[in-house]
C-alpha cells in the first residue's frame, strides 16, 4: 500500500465523491418531472433509470472531448424522452425542462456519507481543493447547498480552460493554480477514468473511491476505498 506521508496538496472530485449527484438528481428530476406532468406518459421510475444511464454514457464522451457541453445537455434528455415514449409537442420543452432541472438540482443538499467528516479531517492538515468537470454556473452552488463550501479553499473547473479530466492539461493547470507539485499531490475521486487515470498520467498520487464496487482492475489507484471514512487513516 502506498504511503501518503509526503502529500502536501489534496484535490477531491465533487459530483458523487462528496456532493451526492445521484441522490440529488433523483430528487430534482422527480420534482420537475411532476411539474411537467410527464408521469401520464411514462412512470417516473422508468424515466430516471433511462436518464441516469444515458447521462453517464454522455459524460464519459464529454470527459474525452468527444462531444460538447451543449450536446451533452440537450441529448441526455432527448434520448431519455424518446426511449420512454414521451411525446414532445412544444419544441422548447426540452430546453425549459433542462433549465428547470438544473435550477432545482443546485438547491439539493444530499452529500455522500462521510463527506463532511473527511473534509474536516483534511482541512486540519492543510488546504483542500476541488477539481471537477462540472459546469461553472452549477458547481459553486452545489457546494453551498451541501454546506461543503466552507471546507474548500479553491474550486478548479474544466470550464476554466475548456479541457476536461482525464486530459493531463487540466491536472497540470490545477497545480499551477494552487502552486502544487505533482509528486506531492493526491487526487481523490469516484470516476476511475476521469479522476484516477487522469491524475496518475499527470504524476499525481491517487485514491479511488469505489463507491459502486463495479471496477475490478484498478492498477492506477494507489489506494482503493469503498467509504470516505477509510481515507482518514491514510491522509
From TrEMBL:
Coiled coil: none annotated. GO terms for molecular function: 5'-nucleotidase activity. It comes from the Bacteria. Gene3D superfamilies: HAD superfamily/HAD-like (3.40.50.1000), Putative phosphatase, domain 2 (1.10.150.240). This is Noncanonical pyrimidine nucleotidase, YjjG family. It comes from Candidatus Limisoma faecipullorum.
